């Protein structure tokens, strides 16, 4: 299947959200080696409406504080494939996204809190994973297993978007 997963966690409230506030935080992550991977630069796309916001650029993956779909949040994106099956690669993406969200929540200058009852999973490879019911059927067991452990509760997985878009699944849980 694929190993290039994206995981987006949404902010609980938009009230204190300022995409530019992530810039110095991401720079400190590079300086202080906060992540267990090579991150090398910060790009500011805050001027793009409903766009990628601020991006922490890494060798194997990127971290976005974005406003895509008018839903601010943190998106982790694996851009280089990993060895392993879909479940192992999704578990790695979820772990990295949750770690980054935890670090952002701990940052006193931000005042951000991320939702744990809904997230978005994407596959950044249209060829290997078209946005179709077949892709959802193939990935659902891995999504259920990985996110069942991470989120708990009863999961609901819904494919969203159009066939021309990246495979996207909205995952919700009844756990609080």
Folded structure, characterized:
With 176 residues, the chain is α+β, with helices and mostly antiparallel strands. Helix content is 29%, strand content 31%. The protein contains three helices and eight strands. It has an eight-stranded antiparallel beta sheet with strand order 2-3-4-5-1-6-8-7, with helices on one face. Strand 2 and strand 3 form a beta hairpin. Helix 2 packs across helix 3 (133-151). The longest helix has 21 residues, at 86-106. The protein is globular.
Brief digest:
The protein is of the alpha+beta class.
List keywords for this structure.
176 residues, alpha+beta, eight-stranded antiparallel sheet, 3 helices
Q: How many β strands by DSSP?
A: 8
Task: Report how far the terminal alpha carbons are from each other.
Answer: 32 Å
Instruction: Supply the number of helical segments.
Output: 3
User: Which bin fits the share of residues in helices?
Assistant: 25-40%
Radius of gyration: 15 Å
**Pattern of helices and strands:** EHEEEEHEHEE
Low-pLDDT windows of residues: none
Strands of the biggest beta sheet: in what spatial order?
Answer: 2-3-4-5-1-6-8-7
Q: Please tell me the overall pLDDT.
A: 91
Name the overall outline: globular
- Strand proportion, as a percent range, falls in 25-35%
What oligomeric state best describes the polypeptide chains here? single chain
Structural class: alpha+beta
Largest sheet: 8 strands, antiparallel
